[in-house]
Amino acid sequence: MDKKKFTEKTSWFWKWFLNNQVVVSLIVVLLLLLILLVFTKVSYLFEPVGQFFAIVGLPMVLAGILFYLMNPVVNHLEKRGVKRQYGIILLFIVVLALLIWGIVVIVPEIRQQIQSLVNSFPGYIDTIEGKADQIFKDPSFRPVQEYIENSAQRILETITNMTQDLSRVTLQGLGSVVSVVTNIVIALFTAPIILFFLLKDGKRLGPYLVSFLPNRMRRPSYRVLREMNQQLASYIRGQLTVAFAVAVMFMLGFSIVGLNYGILLGVLAGFLNLIPYLGSFLAMIPVVFIAIVTGPVMLLKVIIVFAIEQMIEGRIVSPLVLGSQLEIHPVTIMFVLLTAGKIFGLAGIILGIPFYAVAKVIASHVFDWYKSVSNLYNEEEVEEETVDT
């Protein structure tokens, strides 16, 4: 009798708890949250790890970006019969020659245009203020003139307070500035070394990492690593290629229409184009500002250049270079940019999309594994129910 009651209780507990997939899933989630809570309580133990990655993070990121750009060239040279080490050395020599050429030819021109822009900026501000006064003195603007003046006064007070705070923080942050400069110098010296070994032994990295896993997990894990690598490679190569094309198109367009500081503004547009969907519009803010000061004809020319660039980039360059390899919806990209920018700042805006692409690959494989072991997504049962109804 006791044995029968025990069996009934065990069966009931097994049915509603141990054998209930929803309950088991909730328990797993609860355990994960408890693990995260414990990590937050002992986070001080991981501060040395964080400091280590703060030091090596920048050179590793730079080396990784250059690896995805240079690895196809090294592979092509290797297929042509050039030994991999010699191909890497040859490519390093070519890149170094291009850097020297850029420093000798382009950098002085950009520096000259920056100095000219800084010297001319007060005159541009006076011109904008004069045109704004002419517009606001018009009788049709009198109803909103008081509101605009109050808003301008509040903005001026805010800028004054920010300037005072900045002057206070600047003296306090000299140590952090020195630290940032030191990290950049270390990255410039160590990134080429990391890049050389990545190009030389990059093919062995994936098999080496999965060799630490159990045998049955090696093949699916290596498949995940390969897809992550493909996503990062396609995004980095495509994004940098499009940014370079945008910079060239803007520099040519601004030079043709005769806009001042065309090379500087074109290079700026190329860098800002690394921010998806927003970069080109952000780059047009200083361009429109300078065009307004120059005159309405120049403003019209700049708008035409921008329209032509957007048409070429959207219809030709981006589809050919990027295509639909990431398969990320534009709305999702906007949410990722806003969230990553809010949490991590500029680095989050630039690196948010590739990290999301990697996380998407991992999440999709984890979900496929969960579907296969949970039996909660049995399509045969759904088809049978559909046929019965």
Automatic annotation (TrEMBL):
Name of protein: AI-2E family transporter
Keyword ATP-binding included in the entry's annotation: no
Keywords: Cell membrane, Membrane, Transmembrane, Transmembrane helix, Transport
Residue intervals passing through the bilayer: 21-46, 52-74, 86-107, 177-199, 242-275, 281-308, 343-363
Pfam name, any one: AI-2E_transport
Organism: Candidatus Enterococcus moelleringii
Principal location: membrane
Protein topology in the membrane: Multi-pass membrane protein
Similarity section: Belongs to the autoinducer-2 exporter (AI-2E) (TC 2.A.86) family.
